[in-house]
Design brief:
The chain has seven helices and nine strands, in the order αααββαβαβαββαβββ. By secondary structure, the chain is α/β, with parallel strands linked by helices. The strands form two sheets. Strands 5-4-3-6-7-8-9 form a seven-stranded mixed beta sheet. The chain has a two-stranded antiparallel ribbon with strand order 1-2.
Length: 229
Amino acid sequence: MIEKIKELLERYSEKNDKYFKLRKEMVEIQLRERGITNEKVLEAFLAVPRHIFVPESRRSFAYDDTPLPLFEGQTISQPYMVALMVELLEPDEKKHILEVGTGSGYQTAILALLSKQVYTVERYESLSEYAKEKLKELSIDNVVFHVGDGSEGWMDFAPYDGIIVSAGAPDVPEPYLEQLNPGGIIVIPIGDRFYQDLVKVIKTEKGIKKEYHGPCVFVPLIGKYGFKD
Ligand code: SAH
């Protein structure tokens, strides 16, 4: 989907998109200066028009250094947090990725540009439909949407090369380890309902390896292997 990045960079270029300058500043100041180094990831963030994922009343804040309210009480994650998680996932053009917590679809779009295929699960049908519409608007077509409890993963298309979770969980849901290829990576916030640590889990032949990447705040993962509703 790297050609897709080029296509979007043209469609939402400095000439065509009044938000281009703000988006460029977001990439340079919020992402690169804070330590995001993967050039492909940085390019994807420049290519995806974040403002179209933000509810109309908040569009002028779309490129601010902050999470933004969505609906159903959910939020669009802060750009830096999305970038950090995506970088830790080590996406590439060959990988099949499971995303849990579609939300607005912003991260879904970024992932789609950097991987072979994205499978994304969301609890709320309204959000899943919203995200589907946005990706259609960008002509991104390597994403499969599903409404359900993503704390159980998604058996239908397993095994995955990577699993990325945009909601906080009490621990790594067991089904994720079963649905992951050897060498696969899970990026997931782990903690309580209000405060988590960003954890990268690597599935190796000898077992699992965990790396901790700092504190974060996500809405809770609600479901069988998450928190109670
Ligand atoms: N990356 C998204 C973040 C959305 S917030 C964005 O930037 O827009 C997290 C999302 O996880 C919410 O939409 C919430 O409804 C969803 N969620 C919570 N528990 C879930 C579960 N068990 N399965 C699927 N989605 C879940």
